[in-house]
From TrEMBL:
Active site, UniProt feature: C826 (glycyl thioester intermediate)
The name this protein goes by in its record: HECT-type E3 ubiquitin transferase
Substrates-to-products reaction catalysed: S-ubiquitinyl-[E2 ubiquitin-conjugating enzyme]-L-cysteine + [acceptor protein]-L-lysine = [E2 ubiquitin-conjugating enzyme]-L-cysteine + N(6)-ubiquitinyl-[acceptor protein]-L-lysine
Transmembrane segments: 581-601
Domain called HECT: residue spans: 509-858
E.C. no: 2.3.2.26
A single MF term (Gene Ontology): ubiquitin protein ligase activity
Source species: Candida glabrata (strain ATCC 2001 / BCRC 20586 / JCM 3761 / NBRC 0622 / NRRL Y-65 / CBS 138) (Yeast)
Keyword field contains Transferase: yes
Pfam families according to UniProt: HECT (PF00632)
Gene3D superfamilies: Hect, E3 ligase catalytic domain, Hect, E3 ligase catalytic domains
Coiled coil ranges: none
Any single biological process term in GO: protein polyubiquitination
Keyword set, alphabetical order: Membrane, Transferase, Transmembrane, Transmembrane helix, Ubl conjugation pathway
Length: 858
């Protein structure tokens, strides 16, 4: 946006850009501008430079001589040049909460003393001293920047959260809204005028800490602080504060912000994250009512994880606010309209068939800015305990806290295609060099916002397209060569030699790993529609974990499985056959994910962290070896002067070589290894004990299993070499993807009952159906696991819970029978006879689930 220069009279009627060109050898550009008035036309050449708006990030061409410029998108005026020392000195004052408290107390005392003498006008003006204080302290952002310093004098960016909240609480406690509204207006004035070289962010954090800002998003405010004016200006403060903070990255100061967020109290950190997620949801609600106004008749009440967020309906507002203007919305009317349509507590979300298309959000600066800011919060959350010796659970938010379920309604196929870089094409295999780092905005770049259920949908979409492409290529190749080529990955095995047969099949079909898996057991009838595949995974993993293979070791103190310890010497390195089994296990785990099958594995989190490339911490070691971890913790906590005499340790460790049982003649049972160079001659002292523990953990979790783990990882990555969706999952989500939901010790059969389909004459009101659910809920966890394994082929619960498990009950006959129930594991279907009593049903069901294996009885 350009303003007329002083040399051009106010009578000028029109300013027109007639050409735009780059200056050779210079980063600047030239604009030729024609200025016309009633008397003459003047053509002027203006030298410009390209700058980003500090709020919305919009790229603007600005005349080099302009002292200030205004963004045409967010309407923020930016002043050129930095803040001078004289300005810094001029505004070195700060807000003092105690001073404000004294002023407020005097105002209340004045009311008490002159209660009967004061006129109505005087009562309104009694709090003018508070207004004057607000005016004095909010006239410049530097004053706010100086306020509420943290307790540590060494960290100038810290904010005293308690003092900030106390300041806002005082304003909320007043019987009038005028001082609070005055403060909001002064804050808005500061945000509308930015200094281009300003690198401060404390004042923005202080503004965002205002608990009243949530009112513009949820329609709930403290006391009477919920007027339309307050909600409108609160929205202005939110969008501009979020915009400034998100664009700190452009000024290379985002690292300072992240360091501050790492030190922020967890309760405040979580509250700010909730506000940002509410703001993101609010922006999507605007999109929905702009381009899909007809969807209003299809909106259905449904609870949302983000407490208090409501999508509201006011067509007048949406038509105005999304017509290109960035002015403040009539938020009060929007939030009130929902109570008449959905009830006071109703929370509305889009209907199941509604999808947000990428073109609707990929250029929305509100969405881009808040997403970028949430990414700063996510990075800070990951680094809050940066040391590998610190506990993960101290000050960290769970990954699911960052999920925003409004994203479940985006068109994830298009979003993923845009992220992957090959939209609307099937040639996934040919594009594996693309790393998903394109400039186009997609939510797949910010996977921490995407719920686990949606990530699984994205992966299923990609895998389905890969399998379709592989089947198509196989069919075309068979036509070209005139011979039959399988469109599936076929594995033919004998139960007695399942590991060797499986390894041989995979070695012979390396190029078919991306195809849909089909399993055949030699000498057994049955067509694999999913059931045979599930049993193959179950039997194969059970064989690979057999102690006789020495691939993995069972740790009694934690009841977990880990890679076998082996000394890094030629005699202890596993032979070729053993290394191939590690490769086979990596392929099997990846194939299970690729073919949507849950495995019954009991690995620690460390395995999934290593797959995802995430750093390991003390907690990861403690999960596998809790007793040793307790001793190491005592070593770290001991601060006596006789440390060396008490522990008498060197930088070395002794362990049992798990490969000793395979080759006892050539492999020592006990092995002593130095943790660092010349470690046997280096004593552990109070000054280097932390380094000793770090090296100890690194040895047992990384170095000592590096050869075998790398072979396993090679097999895992072989299957996912053409998949990009696997990058969306962190270690916690990957663990749930492989093993299902392991957080519960009891199956939720009540939830499973609510999603069960009744077929073949069965209905939920029949006695045999009612008895079945009663029996399932009464059984202990051991019997429940056997029941689930009998019906579904796996005792795991899907990563997204029992509600996503397709389960069927069917009727075998209309009369009593002595036959056992039948299960179709391919379809998760249990077939029951119409038994005459609950006791008989339980007896037959117990016999079936405990004595059956495969596709016949043994």
């Amino acid at each position: 946006m350009f303003r007329r220069s002083k040399s051009i009279k106010k009578t000028s009627k029109q300013i027109e850009v007639i050409s735009h060109s780059k200056t050779p050898g210079d980063e600047g550009e030239q604009l030729k501008v024609r200025v016309e008035d009633k008397r003459k036309s003047i053509t002027v050449t203006v030298e410009t430079e390209r700058l980003n708006c500090l709020c919305c990030g919009m790229v603007l061409d600005i005349p080099k001589t302009a002292e200030k410029f205004k963004c045409c998108v967010c309407h923020v005026t930016t002043y050129r040049g930095g803040q001078t020392k004289s300005e810094t000195y001029k505004y070195k004052t700060s807000i003092d909460v105690d001073d404000l408290a004294v002023i407020v107390k005097n105002c209340f005392n004045d009311i008490v003393e002159r209660k009967n003498e004061m006129t109505q006008e005087e009562k309104y003006n009694v709090f003018n001293p508070v207004n004057d204080y607000i005016d004095a302290k909010f006239r410049h952002h530097q004053i706010l920047e100086n306020s509420f310093p943290g307790s540590s004098p060494l960290v100038d960016s810290d904010v005293n959260t308690e003092q900030v909240l106390r300041f806002y609480k005082i304003l909320f406690s007043l019987p009038t809204r005028r001082p609070y509204f005055r403060m909001l207006c002064r804050m808005n004035d500061l945000l509308r005028k930015a200094n281009h070289n300003c690198t401060h962010f404390r004042w923005l954090i202080i503004i965002l800490m205002n608990p009243g800002l949530r009112c513009c998003l949820i329609g709930k405010a403290q006391g009477g602080f919920d007027s339309q004016e307050i909600r409108t200006i609160s929205y202005e403060l939110l969008k501009r504060s979020i915009g400034y903070l998100s664009n700190l990255d452009r000024q290379k100061h985002s690292k300072k912000l992240i360091k501050y967020l790492m030190r922020m109290p967890l309760s405040c950190f979580k509250e700010q994250l909730e506000v940002l997620n509410l703001y993101l949801t609010f922006q999507f609600s605007k999109i929905m009512y702009k381009d899909n106004q007809s969807v209003r008749t299809r909106i259905q009440p449904r609870r949302m994880p983000s407490d208090g967020m409501e999508l509201v309906n006011n067509s007048t507002y949406w038509n105005y606010h999304l017509s290109g203007s960035d002015e403040s919305p009539n938020i009060n009317g929007i939030l009130e309209s929902k109570s008449s349509e959905h009830g006071q507590k109703g929370k509305s979300v889009p209907s199941g068939d509604f999808k947000f298309s990428p073109y609707q959000y990929e250029n929305d600066w509100h969405i881009l800015s808040v997403t970028k800011l949430i990414s700063f919060f996510f990075t800070a959350n990951q680094k809050r305990n940066i040391s590998c010796l610190q506990s993960e659970n101290n000050g960290l938010l769970d990954t699911s806290t960052f999920y925003n379920t409004i994203l479940d309604f985006i068109d994830y196929r298009k979003d993923f295609d845009n992220w992957r870089g090959k939209p609307n094409r099937l040639h996934f295999v040919q594009s594996k060099e693309y790393d998903g780092n394109g400039k186009q905005f997609t939510f797949c770049k910010y996977p921490f916002l995407i719920s686990l259920g949606l990530k699984i949908s994205i992966m299923e979409y990609e895998i389905r397209r890969i399998m379709e492409y592989e089947a198509e290529q196989a069919f075309l190749l068979s036509l070209d060569k005139g011979k039959v080529i399988d469109v599936y990955l076929k594995v033919r095995v004998r139960r007695s030699n399942i590991s060797s047969d499986s390894l041989q099949s995979i070695k012979e079909h390396q190029g078919d790993l991306f195809k849909s898996l089909k399993v055949e057991f030699v000498g057994e009838p049955g067509i694999d529609a999913g059931g045979l595949r599930k049993e193959w995974f179950m039997l194969l993993t059970k064989t690979l974990f057999d102690p006789r293979t020495s691939l993995f070791v069972y740790v009694p103190e934690s009841r977990l499985i880990w890679f076998s310890n082996s000394a890094q010497n030629e005699a202890s390195i596993p032979d070729k056959e053993t290394m191939e089994l590690y490769y086979l296990f990596g392929v099997v785990m990846a194939l299970a994910i690729f073919n949507s099958t849950i495995l019954n594995l009991h690995f620690p989190k460390a395995l999934y962290k290593k797959i995802c490339g995430e750093p390991l911490k003390f907690d990861d070691y403690a999960e596998i070896y809790p007793e040793t971890a307790q001793n190491l913790q005592k070593l770290l906590e001991y601060d006596g002067d006789d440390f060396s005499e008490v522990f008498a340790l060197n930088f070395e460790t002794t362990f049992i070589n798990d490969m000793w049982e395979i080759n006892p003649k050539n492999i020592k049972k006990y092995n002593t290894v130095e943790l660092c160079a010349n470690g046997k001659n280096m004593s552990v002292t109070s000054s280097n004990k932390e380094e000793y523990v770090k090296l100890w953990i690194d040895f047992y979790l990384n170095k000592n299993i590096s050869t075998t783990f790398e072979k396993f990882l090679l097999g895992f990555k072989r299957v996912f070499s053409v998949s990009k969706s696997i990058k969306l999952f962190n270690f916690e989500e990957l663990q749930r993807l492989v093993c299902g939901d392991q957080d519960t010790n009891k199956y939720d059969f009540g939830m499973l009952k609510s999603v069960t389909k009744y077929i073949g004459g069965m209905n939920e009101n029949m006695p045999v159906a009612k008895w079945f659910w009663e029996i399932a809920q009464e059984w202990d966890i051991t019997k429940q696991k056997k029941l689930m394994r009998f019906v579904t082929g796996s005792d795991g619960v899907p990563a997204t819970g029992m509600s996503t498990l397709p389960f069927k009950l069917s009727l075998l006959g209309s009369s009593d029978s002595d036959k056992l129930p039948i299960a179709h594991t391919c379809f998760n279907e249990l077939c029951l006879w119409q038994y005459r009593s609950k006791e008989k049903l339980e007896s037959k069901l117990k016999w079936a689930v405990t004595e059956s294996e495969g596709f016949g009885f043994k």
